[in-house]
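User: Before I run my own analysis I want an independent prediction to cross-check against. Here's the chain; please return only the C-alpha cells and, at the end, one sentence I can use as a sanity check.
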Amino acid sequence: MVVLHGDFGEHWLQAVKRLNIKTLGLHANPFQISVDGFLSFVEKQRKTIENLEEFGVSVQYYLHALNYLLPRSLFKVDGTLFRINEKGERTADFNGCPSSESTLKIIEENSYLFAVKLKQKSNAYHIWTDDDMGGDVRCHCDKCLRLTATEQNLIFSRAILKGLRKYDENARLSFLLYGKENYFKKLPEGIFVEFAPFKRRHDMPLTEGKENAYFRRTVKKLIATYGRKRVEVLEYFLSYDYVGFKNRKDRVLADVNFYRNLGVDTLSTFIVCKEEGYLLKENFDGIEKYMLL
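Assistant: C-alpha cells:
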C-alpha cells in the first residue's frame, strides 16, 4: 500500500496488525508538499515509523525529488547545470542537463545526504525525477538532443543510485514508467521498473477496453524484456470505495488477477483514507477487501 503523507499517522500501527501489511509506502505529492517539508514530516513521524519497522513492516518512501537533489537555487550560480528547453532557453523548471558531469555529481552527493536523512531500512528506493505530467521536459542542448526523455531520466537515476549506495551498498532504485514512454533492452544493475499505468481507463478493468489494450501489451513486454523480478506494478486506488473510479469491485478483482497471472511479484496501490478513524472501523470497506484478495 502507498498512502499520501497526510493520511499517515500513529493509527496505522493498529491497521497494519489487523491487515497483516508487510510493506507501507509514504508518498509526497509534489503539488502538496516540498521535499524539505516531507523530510520534516518523516522526522516528526520517526517513532511511528520505527514502531512499524519493529513490527516487521517495510516502510518505503515514494517521491519525485530531483528538484531537491539538484537545487533550483544553483541556477544563479551555474546555469549550465540545468536544461535547455525546446525554445532554446536555459531554464531551471524541470530536472537538469544529464550531459553535465557537474550536474550528476551534485545529484549523486545530495542523494547520499538524502538517504542519511530518510534513514530507510528497506533497500528498495522510489526516488524519481521531476514529474513532467506529459510535457516535454528533456534537455535540448547539443549533447542531450539525441537522447529520449527515458534515456535522460535513466542517466539521472543512475546518479541517484550511485549516491544511495554510499549509504546502503545494497540499494535498489525504481525507474518509473507510466506506460507510454520508450524503454530500452537492458536495465542497469540495481535499477528495476516501476510500472504505473496512470493514463489507463480506470473505470473498467485493465483486461477490458481498447484504451487499456496498450497498457496490457506494455506490461507484458516489460516482463518479457526484464523478467518479473525486475518489474513492479504501482496501481491507482485499487480499493472498491474510491468514488473517482466508479466503485467497481469487479475492476479490482480483474486487475489483481491479471497481474497475478502475469507472475508480477510486487503489486502496490495508492489508497485513499477518508479520515483517521476509517482504518479502525469494523468494516474497512475497500481497503480490507483489497488486502484479503
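Sanity check: Residues 275-293 have pLDDT under 50 and may be disordered.
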